[in-house]
Design goal:
rod-shaped; transmembrane; two-stranded antiparallel sheet; 383 residues; mainly alpha; 9 helices; transmembrane helix; 3% strand; 84% helix; de novo design (two linked rop proteins); 2 strands
Length: 383
């Protein structure tokens, strides 16, 4: 019969819809959980790159400390591994950036930190040598006080003037390299000119006869045969002249080193900031994926609910067409017969399917009943 099949089909359809709803809920929950995990992992990465790594890089550039460099490399490695766990189309390019930055940090930018920490070392060494030779000049005058007190006192006075000029030169150098001011540069040139004049005045004084033995040979492995006696003042003034002459070149060299170091620093900070921006760009994509997963789950649920409603409506229409309407016609026919007090056949053409067969069986029963009644009536009449 069609009615049991309809009921069975309706039950199967409802079970199928229920199963699909359960699967949709499970899949949607898993997707949302996965996306939530990616978002949480991203928030951790964002904090690392935006705060920790950037600050560590700045600290290294300011100090040149190798331990801070190792810390930055370790942080970049952790960032790289964390990015690999995020399922997003943009992470591959960022991972490549981080890996390349980590490689360059250990090679290309290592020197930038060292130079940044000790960029003025060449000039500081020159100033130290200058101060040492000025001290030797003062000692030269002090040691020769018994030989020629007047000239010895002049040596000491010139040594004091040179010491003052050297101190001012050191202060101006630090100020100039920090600000690159033309006025400061002119002041440095003036102090060097003062030192030259003072050395020249020193050379104009009479030697005091404090001798040293020096090797006069150009051969690196000079022998004692080449040793000659030379007044200490000659060596002192030669050293002072060389240092004063070399100082402007060393300023230029230091400026070049500082400029190159600053370029590397700016480049490193730019790359670090770019990685941070790229990591931040994942945020919109991750939240978009999370939103899409939620929307897709919603749409799937809406579709399944709509299918369930349609199936219920179709089940109602089918029941009404196949069961309720034929049953009402059959009931109406029986009620009329009960009201008329007769047993008559029901017209079959208005019934279809299972109810047509039911009406046919009923009509056969009515005909059989009529036949039996006719026989009983005939029998009664003959008796």
């Amino acid at each position: 019969m069609k009615l049991p099949k309809l009921l069975l089909g309706s039950l199967v359809g409802q079970c199928l819809i229920a199963g699909l709803l359960v699967l949709t809920f499970i899949k949607g929950a898993n997707n949302l959980e996965a996306q939530q995990s990616d978002v949480q992992r991203y928030q951790e990465i964002k904090a690392k790159i935006a705060i920790d790594i950037k600050q560590t890089v700045i600290d290294y550039l300011n100090t040149g400390d190798a331990t801070i460099l190792a810390k930055a490399e370790a942080q970049l490695e952790v960032l790289e591994n964390s990015l690999r766990q995020i399922n997003n189309d943009k992470t591959a390019s960022i991972i490549y950036q981080v890996a390349l930055l980590r490689l360059d940090l250990s090679q290309k930018y290592r020197a930038a930190g060292k130079l940044g920490n000790n960029a003025q070392a060449v000039l500081e060494n020159a100033e130290r040598e200058l101060a040492d030779n000025v001290k030797l000049l003062a000692e030269y005058g002090e040691n020769a006080m018994d030989i020629n007190p007047g000239v010895a006192m002049q040596y000491q006075m010139l040594a004091a003037e040179m010491a003052q000029s050297a101190h001012v030169l050191s202060l101006l150098r630090s100020q100039y390299l920090d600000g690159r001011n033309e006025k400061t540069q002119s002041s440095i040139a003036f102090q060097l000119s003062q030192l030259k004049t003072q050395v020249k005045q020193t050379q104009g004084l009479s030697p005091l006869g404090l001798m040293d033995t020096v090797n006069n040979s150009d051969d690196f492995f000079g022998t004692d045969e080449n040793d000659i006696a030379q007044d200490q003042i000659v060596t002192i003034t030669d050293n002072l002249n060389n240092l004063i002459k070399r100082y402007p070149k060393e300023i230029d060299y230091t400026q070049q080193q500082l400029a190159q170091t600053q370029v590397l620093k700016d480049e490193l900070l730019t790359r670090t900031n770019q990685v941070a921006l790229n990591v931040k760009s994942i945020e919109h994509s991750l939240f978009g994926v999370k939103s899409n997963a939620f929307v897709n789950t919603q749409y799937t649920l809406y579709i399944l609910i709509a299918i369930s409603v349609l199936m219920a409506f179709a089940h109602f229409i089918s029941q009404h067409h196949l069961f309720h309407r034929p049953l009402n016609r059959f009931h109406t026919a029986l009620r009329k017969q009960a009201e008329n007090g007769g047993v008559l056949s029901i017209e079959q053409h208005s019934f279809k399917g299972d109810f047509r067969q039911l009406v046919t069986d009923y009509n056969r029963l009515v005909e059989q009943t009529k036949t039996k009644m006719s026989r009983l009536k005939l029998l009664y009449q003959t008796t």
